[in-house]
Specification:
By secondary structure, the chain is mostly helical. The chain has helices at about 55-125, 130-190, and strands at about 25-35, 40-50. It has a two-stranded antiparallel sheet. The longest helix is centred in the middle third of the chain and has 70 residues, at about 55-125.
Length: about 190
């Protein structure tokens, strides 16, 4: 069948595979020439009829469509596996970020308590005022650094949650499309049988 067809018009598309090829209704033109030496005439007879598709062509279309769907399924499966791995990594990163945030929060609490102790000690020990003041400055700088780290981790956590929502939406669309394709294949098989 492929040897009898040729490309009529090409448009941009088909980057990975063809989802479906659809046959259009065919018209068959028959031309008959007749001539007569008796009256010296030449007559041309022309007839155009619509050709119905036969079962072999329908079967070929169904097989081609099934092969295309299989290729699409394999491509989508690979994409799904990649996104599942990405989702797993995102969850692991989220868990690590949570643990790090808890650790940093504990460290901040410890530093805050330590800062209070240092201030209290500073009031009691005026002699070591200059040394304690420097210590307080160092602790405050560390608190600011840890607060910035927590803010960055918070942003990463928000981004990870958005990625998770996108993956879940893609998974739902993929399952819906797959179910629709399976129903279409089932109908084509029923039609062929």
């Amino acid at each position: 069948y492929q040897r009898r067809v040729h490309g009529e018009k090409y448009v941009k598309g088909h980057n990975t595979f063809v989802n479906q090829a659809v046959l259009i209704k065919r018209m068959e033109t028959r031309i008959i020439w007749s001539s007569s030496l008796a009256d010296g005439t030449l007559r041309i007879w022309r007839e155009e009829t619509q050709v119905d598709d036969d079962m072999a062509e329908q079967l070929a279309v169904a097989i081609a469509s099934n092969a295309a769907q299989q290729g699409q399924y394999e491509f989508m499966q690979k994409r799904f596996d990649a996104m599942t791995n990405e989702l797993r990594e995102a969850k692991e990163n989220e868990q690590a970020a949570r643990l790090l945030a808890e650790k940093n929060q504990n460290r901040i609490n410890e530093l805050e308590n330590q800062l209070k102790n240092e201030i209290s000690l500073n009031e009691n020990l005026k002699k070591e005022n200059s040394n304690l003041s420097q210590r307080i400055v160092d602790l405050e700088s560390e608190i600011i650094g840890l607060t910035q780290t927590i803010a960055e981790l918070s942003q990463k956590l928000t981004s990870t949650q958005q990625t998770l929502k996108e993956v879940e939406r893609f998974n739902k669309e993929y399952r819906d499309e797959l179910q629709s394709n399976e129903e279409l294949i089932k109908k084509l098989r029923e039609t062929i049988e």
